Amino acid sequence: MSRIAGRFESLRARGRKALIPYITAGDPEPSVTVPLLHALVEAGADVLELGVPFSDPMADGPVIQAACERALAHHVSLHQVLDMVRSFREQDSDTPVVLMGYLNPIEVMGYEPFARAAHAAGVDGVLTVDLPPEEAAELVACLKAEQLDPIFLAAPNSDAERIRRMTENGGGFLYYVSFKGVTGANRLDVQAVADKLEQIRGHTDLPVGVGFGIRDAESAAQIAAVADAVVVGSALVTRIAALADRPGEIVARAPQVIADMRAAMDRA
After folding, report:
1. Catalytic residue at 29?
2. Residue 181, pLDDT score
3. Which of these, 97, 113, 130, 266, has the minimum number of CB atoms within 10 Å of its CB?
4. Is the peptide bond before 28 cis (omega within 30 degrees of 0)?
């Protein structure tokens, strides 16, 4: 059983939903990332999403685009991101880590070398935003050969056939994007999410996490009532951005966003 599957099974047995924060590796500077990952776990994170900085993050809104720019100003590469995961694993062998990013850096490294390096570093899953399931067979094969979970993005307009492809080829969990558009927008419709999740669950036993539009503790609790996991990106990265000129304060202050959501989810 993968670390991701084990974590979801443990949470299900305890009647809890997963909280999955996203940060961009190297934002606002590389020395912050690993201590921040540990602090997020202490604040209540169950799975960690670590973004690989990319120069053209087309699925992301201005908040995460700016985070990528801050990280790239320090020339943070995919190799360095893997080094960060390796460093994180020196103290935490339990919390699943998912790399989230775009295909180009993986193609530059090569699918097989990337999968081997990611496994060796302690990565558990890989989500490539711009790789549709219809074109993912080669990368999926390389990831699965190294016991890594390929994670796919489902959208409101994903039909039954596409969902079937995602769940047959994927692992860990399915990431449902709550609305069409980029990260950071604010138009969450919880009932529409619940209706789509009912359809998705007719095709898979994979846990389903929901991201996009979760801005505060209240919206996290609302989504936790209908989903298996709550994925939080822009709300956390916004807090990091507000402290970017005081990086020494980020580890102590930014995870409060996650602590507040965890408390609200557990009360719901």
Report:
1. no
2. 45
3. 113
4. yes
Does 143 score more than 50 pLDDT?
A: yes
Vertex 188: Cα angle to 185 and 190 (nearest 5): 165
CA distance linking residue 95 with residue 110, whole number of Å: 26
Phi and psi of 5, rounded to 5°?
A: -60, -40
**Of 27, 46, 60, 228, catalytic:** 60
Residue 84: its pLDDT value, please? Answer: 98
Burial class (CB in 10 A: 0-12, 13-18, 19+), 267: exposed
Question: What is the number of alpha carbons within 13 Å of residue 194 lying toward its C-beta?
Answer: 8
Report the domain count for the chain.
Answer: 1
**149 has catalytic annotation:** no
Alpha-carbon distances, residue 246 vs 88, 189, 250 (angstroms): 22, 35, 7
CATH code, domain carrying 209? 3.20.20.70
pLDDT tops 60 at residue 186: no
Within the chain, residue ranges assigned H as helices are 3-13, 30-43, 62-72, 78-89, 103-109, 111-121, 137-145, 160-169, 190-201, 217-224, 234-242, 250-253, 256-267
* 3-class secondary-structure state, position 144: helix
Catalytic, out of 49, 124, 149, 228: 49
Q: Which domain holds residue 150?
A: 3-267
| Dihedral class, residue 180 (left if φ above 0, else alpha if ψ from -120 to 50, else beta) | beta
Is the entire prediction scored with pTM above 0.85?
Answer: yes
pLDDT in tens, 146-179: 999 999 999 999 898 999 999 889 999 999 998 5
